[in-house]
Amino acid sequence: MSVEDEDFEERAESSNLDDAMNEPAETLIGSDKTSADYYFDSYSHFGIHEEMLKDTVRTKTYQDVIYQNTFLFKNKIVLDVGAGTGILSLFCAKAGAKHVYAVECSLMADMAKEIVQANGFSDVITVLKGKVEDIVLPVSHVDIIVSEWMGYFLLFENMLDTVLYARDKWLIKDGIVLPDRASLYLTAIEDAEYKEDRIEFWNNVYGFDMSCIKKQSMMEPLVDTVDQNQIVTNCKLLKTMDISKMSSGDASFTAPFKLLAEHDDYIHALVAYFDVAFTKCHKMTGFSTGPKSRATHWKQTVLYLEEVLTICKGEALVGSMTVAPNTTNPRDVDIMLKYSLNGQRCQVSRTQHYKMR
Ligand code: SAH
User: Residue 187 and residue 236: Cα distance in Å, rounded?
Assistant: First the structure.
């Protein structure tokens, strides 16, 4: 899942969310919308679900995992965390699950109920409208948790916490979480043209200096597709998370990296992307959102560097990335990047801060 980050209205909504979160609770109770509504509203519209369903890398992988591993589902109780249209629940029901509980807090839950009925699965799938954290599940335990919780930069929107909550509350010992592994990677790219367009643009806008905005635009990682020809260095695994074992705190971390230049080039940005894996399948399955893989709606996440690095083949860009949910709005992600290059043509050592919001 991922809300459409570039959409202006989405940004307006998230700033409403910030405002709402700062309001005292009494005000929220009186109004017809709570801070949670603002976030979940975006999933009430079919457009986001259409985008996710049409992301065939995403949806087809889940379908393959479920249909090609029916031995996992036969006579099992499944919990679908954040069911949306109910697509994953339908896959599980068709694969022979005994019962599927599809929990969805947006208005799409009403559609999911209709969809389940229209497809003749009302006996097998129960749609529960509400937040996973609030609903009462009619059973005390489930055998399998399936969820598509990943956000931009993997962790944006922080829905992982909801999956971990459900796992700790309802999953039987030795139960299965699908997917059960998620990894974050980093590489470096040449991106002169786009950096000029996005960042340097503010230096001279119709003859006026608007460079104060440049600082803000540098701080917001850009969700966009990177061409694999732009890649300058190797790709480095930053962090792997085992969803069946990890705790919520493990999503905050500092990871070192060493990126080796594969040819002489300029580096304008670092690029982060993730992959997920379903390791409990008969044959390990998963997908990557990296620039060398088929594009997904998650694209990649580009973090621009303050200055252009001139790197020679074999030289190393070393540093660390610190990732943590924002303390005031845990759905946002704070990123701190430390990097240094001690090369023949360029010596740089810097710390930069970014905010995914
Ligand atoms: N499983 C669907 C939808 C994935 S998007 C699919 O694969 O197409 C994630 C969904 O989770 C959204 O519809 C969102 O509204 C829902 N969601 C997010 N947090 C939730 C929570 N805490 N409780 C219930 N639903 C949640």
Answer: 6
- Alpha carbon nearest to ligand 1 atom 20, residue: 82
Please give the positions annotated as active site: 148, 157
For residue 130, give the 3-state DSSP assignment: coil
Ligand 1 pocket by Cβ (under 6 Å): 1, 40, 43, 49, 52-53, 82-85, 87-88, 103-106, 108, 131-133, 148, 159, 162
**Residue identifier of the C-alpha nearest atom 26 of ligand 1:** 82
- Beta partners for 303? 270
- As a residue count, the chain comes to 357
The closest alpha carbon to 68, from 178, 166, 145, 143, belongs to 178
CA–CA dist 25, 23 (Å, integer): 6
**Nearest residue CA, atom 14 of ligand 1?**
82
Q: What is the DSSP secondary structure assignment for residue 137, as one 8-state letter? A: P
For the ranges 20-34, 191-205, 279-293, the lowest mean pLDDT is seen at 20-34
Instruction: Give the pLDDT confidence of 146-166 residue by residue, as tens digits.
Output: 999 999 999 998 899 999 999
The contacts of residue 54 (CB under 8 Å, 6+ apart) are none
Q: Which residue has the tokens 């705790």?
A: 247
Distance 158 CA to ligand 1 centre (A): 11
Q: Are strands 253-260 and 222-224 parallel, antiparallel or unpaired?
A: unpaired
Residue 180 and residue 356 in contact, taking contact as beta carbons nearer than 8 Å: no
